[in-house]
Amino acid sequence: MRSKYKWILSILCLFFFQVGFAQQKTLTGTVVEDGLSLPGVTVIIEGTQEGTQTDLNGKYSISVKPGQTLIFSFIGMKDVKYKVGAASFYNVHMVAAGEELEEVVVMAYGQTKAKNEITGNVVAVKGEVISQTPVASVDQALQGRVAGLQIASTSGSPGAVQNIRIRGRNSMSANNEPLYVVDGMPIITDNLSGAVDSDGVATGTSLSALSGINSDDIESMTVLKDAAATAAYGARGGNGVILITTKKGKRGEPSYSLKTSVGFQNFARKGPKFLSGEQKKELWLEANINSFGKEEGFNKDNVWDWYVGDYGNDGLVQWVNNGSVNNDWRKAVKNQDALVTSVSLGVNGGDEKGTYYASLGHDKYEGAVIGSDFRKVTGSFNMTRNLNKKLDITIGANVSNIKQNGIMEGGAYFSNPNLTGMFMSPWAPIYAEDGSYNLDTPAGLHNSLYTSKHNSIVNDITRVISNNAIGYKILDDLKFESSIGLDYTLSNYSQYYNPIHGDGKAYKGSASQDEKRIFNYVWQNSLNYRFYLGDSHRFNVKGVMEYQKNKFNRLQGRGEVLPPGMEGLGTAAANFTTFADYYDWSQLSYLGMLNYDYQNRYLLDVTFRREGSSRFSKDERWGNFFAVGGAWNISSEAFMDSAHAISLLRLRGSYGTTGNSTINPNMYMQLLEPGTYNNESAIIAYQYGGPLGWEKQEKFDTGVEFGFFNNRLTGSFTYFQSKSKDLLYQRPLSMTSGYEAQWMNIGDMTNRGIEVELNYDLFRGDDFNWSIGGNVGTVKNKVTNMPVINGETVKVLGSYNAIEEGKAYGTWYLREYAGVDAQTGNAQWYKADGTKTTNYNEAEVRYQNTSALPKVTGGVNTHVDYKGFYMDALFSFAAGYSVYDGWASYTNTVNSRSLYTYNGTTELMDRWQHPGDITDVPRVSTGGNANYTSPSTRWLYDGDHIRLRQLTFGYNLKKEAVKFIGVDGVNLAVSAMNPFTWVKDKRLKWDPEVDATGFVEMATPPLKSVIFTLNVKF
């Protein structure tokens, strides 16, 4: 019996030994990406410290037990999990982490959602798209990529401010720019240049507050358009919101990236041609024949003899006597092939407790016009750290220094090189006989080649944007977070005018200095709670208290009479003036957000914000804003399981209120200012105040999103409507009141339109891919209500445009040009009865049913790649708007102003000469047809255009090649920005992208460039 038990015990021991041996086994395999092996991949048994790494051939071997889970991880790749089964080998295919995050969008107040979880109207642009767009200011990279977003150029000078409109114009007198939020912090985006007058209007090259951000530091830019997306920002979200999310680190060993580029830039369009010396001579002599020939008995054959005898040794005679050399001032003031350079170095990494990202960048842009350039140095650092299981911190900082050499542009400044190139007579020599600059220039104009070298206009800006937060996990699903964002700008503006020539001559030299300190901080405290009811109902509740404070300090000084060689304000000897300015404003807000999700089929978002602003009078400063958004993911329903062709189908809609508070502080107050009276100090009434409150907007948005054939075809269709009420308006007052204007809440305005987005993958394959996409947005703007005063509805009628109930804001309001009388050569306009008249004052002023705001905007893009080679192209377009050439009264007159004093365009060569001639240009004379260039449709142009915004060719070196040279990746690319522009109106020679006012400005036009780029990752 004992022997029997021994045998049974031996068999059981052998069985358990064999089972234990069977559980412990060796698993082998290969890890690859796109068919290429990946060395250095970490392989860890989940929940343990046991693991290994793949060898140089991507192979691994590890001892495991069935039921354990392996985690495969590699920098920049999506983690792969594998539950061990009976198999003894397992090959892993890894994909880039970006593919996992492709559909995740950053929303208001740090929320991140998948696209099918969003109820609002948002568009996300990836950081790689931004970094591959070589522009001085990152906002320019959005043009053509977002439906309903339009960018108007104030100047092509590097770093200049751009006007951005999202879904049209929402306000009359308040700011129409969107709110910018960097890593959760609303930042100040005013023009940082010191070249402004006392009212803040630019008098020279502007400087964008966004130009200090390095495009290589951006992870994504998200455009929020409807109430569901923007109501969280209350009164600051009425014009839309642009969220800028900067890069954070990723867990793993340090990973480095180096990007360097070089290129050149020029005017995107050549602009109108200006008269040569001979052409101008021909026209001026003809003008004299038409004015005096019959009376004094001379004609074309002997006009020169008469002219020399009558005019003597004037500018034309001197030019002829000196050899009739053509002086091309337009060409002389250009900086042909202006150099562009950029270099950026970044590093990121981390461990299980946190991550880090740091970068350095340097950009240099030469201006396409002499005297202007732009240089910036940037540094950024972002760190996240889990101090323990409950406590975490985030520290981030972006530091930049910008030095911009600007020019006097945007107006009739005689040292403005753009003005010199257009106004200066080709009879005036650029250089004197001894080779020095000619300082004896006509008509009071300055030789800007001299002034650009001997004057200086410099903006030196240092800015720090810092975002810091501490979070405490009270429960697994309940977290408290406190964050503070700091935005500090130190601006130094210096201006020097030399005593020899130009603006400083009358003062024996002048110098000015302008110091501005802008400190903006935002303190946020929030509670975020996520919970489930059952397995199907998911809730996310967020409560926020936010306080924002802004302080602005400015100190300015000016002096005259400077000794030779001295340029600083401290060396001035006489006529000192000083100016100081200070203001502050603050906002306090309480925000609640509720997100509800039922089985990812039905979604509901509710937002409520109560906000108070010191900008408004005491009884009007608090406002309530809300939004409700919903979505139905139809493709997630069970009845759609058989619809295999439909990958995505969802309906969404939202309604809510936002507002606008972006006006200068203290506009509701009655203000005094210091002055003088009878050589004594005095206090003078300055501003007529009054009750002033929020500008309110009601926004409605509904749309459908779809995807077919495994999302091969994707798109969306949206209808929106925005109603603005109690518009902030600076109403002009009668001069007898003693005040120029008063800020009031008057008038209503609407914007409505549709937006369509489509993307289609024409080919998908391992070696060849081709996709095409596009977007289009329409907007119809209308002023729906104006106040009634003395029984009449208020109309604001200007010389060029008007504001009237029932019309679009700023509709062009002009006399209609009727061409030239074929018998007399005089200009004509239409009267009210439709007949023509040569009397300008008899003509009817008519609404032209067009404004400076495009009714249609959009873009088309395509991408092609083949075995590492790729091509990207982006077109943008705008239609349904008009631009006006207000400078025609200097460059297109048919009398002495353009033909003698200044210079004119070659359009003047098409002037009327004989009875029966059909032309738009009247007869030339020394003083006739003065009203030809007065406000009329003759100088109003159709702005419709299509622009090839960007064309890029590139090559990604194969992994075998980069592995051989010891790096992780190499990319070579060449990009052309704005290489081609098609304009519908053939009369329009200027660039159609003008600023938001619709007027052609005396500023540097948009530029085109060619940029060569090298990217290395290691």
Structure report:
Helices cover 11% and strands 47% of the residues. It is mainly beta. The chain has a 22-stranded antiparallel β-barrel. Strands 11-16-17-14-15 form a 5-stranded mixed sheet. Strands 1, 2, 5 and 8 form a 4-stranded mixed sheet that branches. A hairpin with a 2-residue loop joins strand 19 and strand 20. It is globular, with a radius of gyration of 34 Å. The N and C termini lie far apart (73 Å).
How is this structure best summarized?
With 1018 residues, this protein is mainly beta. The chain contains 13 helices and 55 strands. Strand 1 and strand 2 form a beta hairpin.
Identify the notable features of this structure and list them briefly.
single chain; 1018 residues; mainly beta; 5-stranded mixed beta sheet; 55 strands; disordered N terminus
Number of β-strand runs = 55
Output the number of helix runs.
13
> Percent range for helical residues?
10-25%
State the major sheet: 22 strands, antiparallel, barrel
Which radius of gyration do the C-alpha atoms yield?
34 Å
Low-confidence stretches: 1-22, 98-102
Proportion of beta-strand residues: over 45%
Shape: globular
Output the structural class: mainly beta
Estimate the mean pLDDT confidence.
91
Distance between the termini: 73 Å
